[in-house]
Amino acid sequence: MRPFDYFEPATLPEAVSLLERFDGRASILAGGTDLLVEIKERIRLPDHVINIKKVPGLDYLSYDPVDGLKIGSLATLHEVETSPVVIEKYAGLYQAARELGSIQVRNRATVAGNICRASPSADTLPPLIADNATIHTFGPDGERSIPMEKFFTGPGKTVLLDGEILTRINVPSPPPNTGKVYLKLGRRAAMELATVGVAVTLTLDGNECRSVRIVLGAVAPTPMRATDAEDILIGKAISENAIEEASQAAKDQCRPISDVRGSADYRREMVRVLTGRALRMSIEAANEGNSPFDISTDQTVD
Amino acid sequence: MKHMVSTIINGERRELAIKPYRSLLDVLRNEAELTGSKKGCDVGDCGACTVILDGKPINSCLVLGVEVDGSEITTIEGLADHTAPGAPLHPLQESILQHGGAQCGFCTPGILMAAKALLDETPRPTDEEARFAIAGNLCRCTGYTKIVESILSISGSEGAL
User: Fold this and answer.
1) Is A32 within 8 Å of B67 when comparing Cβ atoms?
2) Nearest to residue A199, comparing CAs of A152, A260, A250, A257?
3) Distance between CA B147 and CA B122 in Å, rounded?
4) What is the nearest CA distance from A101 to chain B, expressed in angstroms?
5) Residue ranges of the domains in chain A?
6) How close is the nearest chain B Cα to the Cα of A147, in Å?
7) Within an 8 Å CB–CB cutoff, is residue B117 touching chain A?
8) pLDDT band (50, 70, 90) for residue B86
9) Could you tell me if B80 and B90 are in contact, meaning their C-beta atoms sit under 8 angstroms apart?
10) Are B24 and B91 in contact (CB under 8 A)?
């Protein structure tokens, strides 16, 4: 591995002052499952690595009905995928965490790292954006909170400023009659990057769609909301026609590239198919108040 | 600059002087002279370097050696109890021999550590749970069926843990 100096700051201000001192030549280490690969493959060449694992107060995963879910920046994907409250109330995030990498990776990798790496195909981003998560940071000018939807600016690029560290992700508590789904399409079942990812968070009011957020992964430079599809559904009665119209709108709005995992045309068509499937599953879950993953995926709604 | 790291490897306290840019896998294989953990891809895709760190299976190629100060590590060398009379193999090792779950053997140490971590948490896994647990371990010889059989045949049996 390319040599670097190594630091274990004991406080957040100390970590921030190290980042400032090294002025762009330092990388933050939390889980390390992306950073160490990037150093080995010489994609990233930090002269200094700052391990934040000794900073107290970042390693937690907590929930209360008022503030919702709080994910500290050291919480691992393993902690997320085994958390009863995540399984019950954040089914999309649960499914995304469970399908990311391997158990070995998930025991180290953090949700915060998945976010800061800002890969267009990162699994946890679509469900967190669908759930309207907020990102909290600490930096030279103090704390900031940023809607996660506005956090990403391109592949590997975020609005994080020099010296800023992600400290927490906040995810609101879902209202009753909400269904959540994340569907990942890959070439194989495990150890795979998404060819297409679709997250839906949908709340029903009787047979009417009170709110819906549809977020697509791996089909644009950043995760993107399918707002045209959402507009077709919000405030309307649920119908198979509306679902199909929304799925087509998601297909029309996404802007994928062709790469080794799939062609742009294939990705667009899969956005249509998976958006429809995710909508049907989330409607079913919203109706039943259950986790959607007990339900077979070929069910349709009357 | 080297950092001093104090860790317990296979029940034995080790004090190691480590360069910060050395992976745990390299530290285990070189400084600790435990070459059972294998270097396959070195980027977390193949699982051949799997060891158990503080009770959890991890890819030792994706952890820095300096990060394990104060931790406890079990490698393939610590799977069987070598102090027991006759130094028997661990039941998982016996099982993988009996079922032909190893051919070239390169993935085997990682598979065994992933399987041990599974059985420590879930003594009677289903076929699906066993496959889920070793999804991060690539084997290019056996097609996995014999590996899964090796794990399932001893699950819940006496001494399996």
Assistant:
1) yes
2) A250
3) 17
4) 7
5) 5-51, 61-171, 178-290
6) 31
7) yes
8) confident
9) yes
10) no
Question: For residue A19, which phi and psi values (nearest 5 degrees)?
Answer: -60, -40
Cβ-Cβ contacts under 8 Å for A130 (sequence gap 6 or more): A92, A180, A182, A199, A200, A201, A213, A214, A215
Q: Is B158 exposed, middle or buried (0-12, 13-18, 19+ CB in 10 A)?
A: exposed
Fold of A61-171: 3.30.465
Contacts of B137 in chain A (CB under 8 A): 102
Would you state the structure tokens that stand for residue A294, as one six-digit string? 């007990």
Which residue of chain B has the CA closest to A191?
A: B136
Query: Which residue does chain A place closest to B26, by CA atoms?
Result: A1
What is the assigned CATH class of domain B3-78?
alpha beta
Q: Which two tokens stand for residue A121?
A: 């195909």
Res B157: pLDDT? 55
Closest residue of chain B to A3, computed from CA coordinates:
B21
Residues A72-118: pLDDT tens digits? 999 999 999 999 999 999 999 999 999 999 999 999 999 999 999 99
Give the fold, CATH level 3, of A5-51: 3.30.43
Of A200, A196, A202, A233, nearest in space to A214 by CA? A200
Amino acid symbol at B86: G
Q: In whole angstroms, how large is the CA radius of gyration of chain B?
A: 15
Assign domain B91-154 to a CATH class: mainly alpha
**Token representation of residue A229:** 């599809």
